[in-house]
Design goal:
acyl-CoA dehydrogenase activity, 3-stranded mixed sheet, Acyl-[acyl-carrier-protein] dehydrogenase MbtN, 8 helices, flavoprotein
């Protein structure tokens, strides 16, 4: 993908990559028919995007994690329009659950959404927000009253309500634009995914799709690595002959390829069965 080297060098997510997928119809095809779409296509798409490094991970956040939540639980016109923007490749979304104090422990979520007129006032902070700088909106897991997991709600917060506290440095995947973000926004009732108190259910559904995409992405990375190793074995010579002609190396390569076939079969089998209706 020609956009990848520049994106990793500049540390900016290439929206053009998402727009191109939208124009070709690949994202919409993956989510047809709504609300579950075709998880098998999702696995194939994630495998292919693995060649794009951090860019592929970023695309997966939008077209799997964010889209999954919107497709099943986005029941208002506002959320339906947001999903349409994602499917068309026009909107970049991110998913905010982890926080500075509690990390990924949802019991410790301190971000609040308090009733304010015909909507909610959302205040708090989220950390490790992949695409936090690039996003047009964030799906934010908040506490809407009381304690416990039943008090969590997922809401759509526009970029205007997000303020970057700090950009987080990482080893690789610079184009993910991961941030520590402060949130202060008013959102209407239409911004609630599902209903108040259903936040953990919505988040679990979305993150299940992300995990499946990550597994497929891992298979794609393995395939790329084996291909690079094979090319090196053909190019490099030792003891007067190419490395590929050494039996021990060929056997190791064959074993790795066999393990990859098993991995891919497992991923695609899981994708075909995990999100069946009912």
């Amino acid at each position: 993908m020609p956009l990848v080297p520049e994106a990793e060098e500049t540390g900016e997510f290439p929206r053009a990559a998402l727009a191109a997928l939208g124009r070709t119809g690949l994202v919409r095809e993956r989510w047809t028919p709504l609300p579950d779409g075709d998880p098998g296509r999702a696995a194939i798409l994630a495998e292919e995007l693995a060649r794009a490094g951090g860019v592929g991970v970023g695309v997966g956040v939008v077209v799997e994690t964010v889209a999954a939540a919107l497709a099943r639980y986005g029941r208002s016109d506002l959320l339906a329009g947001t999903l349409e923007g994602v499917l068309a490749g026009d909107l970049v979304g991110c998913f905010g659950a982890s926080e500075p104090a509690g990390g990924s422990d949802v019991n410790g979520i301190g971000t609040t959404a308090v009733r304010d007129g015909a909507g909610w006032r959302v205040r708090g902070e989220k950390k490790y927000l992949s695409l936090g700088r690039a996003a047009d909106f964030a799906l934010v897991l908040c506490r809407t009253g009381g304690s416990g997991l039943a008090a969590l709600t997922l809401l759509r917060v526009p970029a205007e309500g997000l303020r970057e506290v700090k950009r987080l440095a990482k080893l690789g995947a610079a184009s993910l634009e991961t941030t520590w973000t402060a949130i202060d926004a008013w959102v209407p009732d239409e911004a609630v995914l599902g209903r108040p108190g259903l936040g953990l259910t919505v988040a679990t559904w979305a993150l299940s799709h992300e995990r499946m995409a990550v597994a497929a992405h891992a298979a794609g990375v393995c395939e790329l690595a084996i291909g690079l190793a094979c090319a090196h074995l053909h190019r490099r010579s030792q003891f007067g002959r190419p490395l590929i002609e050494h039996q021990a190396l060929r056997l190791r390569l064959a074993r790795l390829q066999a393990e990859l076939v098993v991995l891919r079969s497992g991923v695609h089998g899981a994708a075909a069965t995990a999100f069946r209706p009912g």
